[in-house]
Fold these 2 entries.
Entry 1:
Amino acid sequence: MPTAAVIGCGDISTVHFEALSAVGDAELVAVCDTDPERLAAAAAAHGVPGYADYLDMLQKVRPDVVHVCTPHHLHASVAADCLEWGVHVIVEKPLAHTLEEGQRLIEVAERSTAKIGVCFQNRYNATSQAMHELLDGGTLGQVIGASATVMWHRDGSYYESRPWRGTWAEGGGGLMMNQAIHTVDLLQWLVGDVAKVEGHASTRSLGGVIEVEDTAEFVAEHVNGARSVFYATLANAVNAPVTLDIVTEKATLSLRGDLTVTYADGAVDVVQERVAETGGRSYWGVSHQLLIADFYATLAHPGPFWINPAEAGKSLGIIKDIYAQSYPDMLERVG
């Protein structure tokens, strides 16, 4: 049974601890965090030693797998160090807070003997899997276009509780990097690689609180000729369901929690999404456990994990392209 450690014991670590307990194919042996209170609480809750320095932890505990749940600006450097030690890695999204760091992690992963997976867990949703199977099967004809929205709500207290979230230096961006990146990832995974994107990011409702964006939109041209339109904001009154519509020659696929497939002949199919009970927040989705279980199941298999740094770099590239168009005078900061 592989041993595991969690680096970063903040909010998102909740679903990683739950997944490790549920999977049953791994043993948690250590936790790590620079915050003494969070570290003490996690170590006590799980009955394992706690470390303030992850390199010290790697040396003394030598886990088989590390879960990286740190703030964004530490994702790439911590993951790269673990890979250099020959330790397998599950890292939270985004891949990195800058393109440079992301590319470095891609290169380290390509030469490492250890595996690395990136948490784009929504690819494991029942609805996402059904959409991908339908589109990949070819029976729906060519994809014509798509549209997606992320209409969520965040207020000042969300950023005050974790100040790094609202900064370029540590968050690497705002709405697009922290919330909407999952939908950007689904859009390019389902519709196809993006050849060109034009968009704009701005701060509409949280200007006195954060320095990053809370609203963004773009139009993407995919390599297969399809076109996607995208809008996201944190200025909505509530966390509305993410929407994703894909139009093909023979059907329209509409995601609103559940998936509705409306065929040209009038037939309609519905794929229901799973409901997962978790101590985490509902907008984190239902599929972290599936991704983590799948990662552990593939450790003995040759070849990289399918959601690897090169794959995760696609959504990062789209987002950073929009930042470059929106903040041309601060490219050094947006990375």
Note: The first helix runs from residue 13 to 23.
Entry 2:
Amino acid sequence: MLEKIWLSSPHMGGNELKYIHEAFDANWVAPLGPNVDGFEKDLESFLHADVKVAALSAGTAALHLALIECGVEYGDEVICQSMTFSASANPIAYQGAKPVFVDSEKDTWNMCPAALQEAIEDRISKGKKPKAIIIVHLYGMPAKMDEISAIAEKYNIPLIEDAAEALGSKYKGKACGTFGRFGVLSFNGNKIITTSGGGALVCHSESDKQHTVFLSTQARDNAPHYQHSHIGYNYRMSNISAGIGRGQMEVLNDRVNARRKMHDFYVELFQNIEGVDVLSESSADYYSNHWLSAILVDERITGKSREDLRLALLEENIESRPLWKPMHMQPVFAEAPYYGKNVAENLFERGLCLPSGSNLEEEDKKRIQHIIEKVFSK
């Protein structure tokens, strides 16, 4: 069987073991230690926005704590981008709150500002002003942050940025994850850098960071015995995982450049294939890390569907995946309100994510190119 070409596999830089060995040598393996502090500082420096970062066990944990910090409670409503992975919406349910889903727009595939405003006004008219807004920078492509931020400010609703896929992406020169009241990062194994599993919450004050750390370490009160006045969580990142992160931060810019080159590879590959569009920046305001390169296939023009391409790649042991199935189409959220038209549904029906790893070799690209050209030449 041909060697597997993955959609997005981990890519080690080489210095991760140095930080892990330091942690073992010092016996710092708990959810605190020099690597955790150092990884947080590395991220703060990279984001260039005078932010404070709390390293956590997962991006989902970061989003859950962001909702808690925004005061989301049982019965509240939270607006969430529909076109996203379920981890963007699940923490709403953790709080006993209810998601309200909003459609995408065609330029970035992210939350549509017009549909967002419609949703807010309608929920307010029904006596349920949303408690927070969760936007997502899908596949690393920045959302329309000027419009979305202005709407959130107009209605005084805190904005949470799910930048799990967008570390290294920028909107008008400013790092994704630094626009909202809180930003969420992920270091899952398939992300642009990884700590094997992990995430972080981006805060705009030291007090918010310290309260996040407090909640993420079981909310233990300052007492000689174990005393708890708040519900806490076991969400802090370990010193071992943070050591991997420190090594990965040393090569983050290289990883972004490599992903962007994979995007350029697909742009060139599809430029002469009519009916296939590659998700790309619509203007110089947007700078995507292109965590995943994604395409839309118009079967009416190509004569082939995205599923035809996916199966042809799979037959050659090359992984590709449909876009995220929108949350308002998921059985678990079937009863949730939804605002918009059919942009997200159309994207899901036509869209495909292609292998985008920073560790793909020229031979891998040739295999991918051969299958794509074979499918669309028929």
Note: The chain has 13 helices and 15 strands.
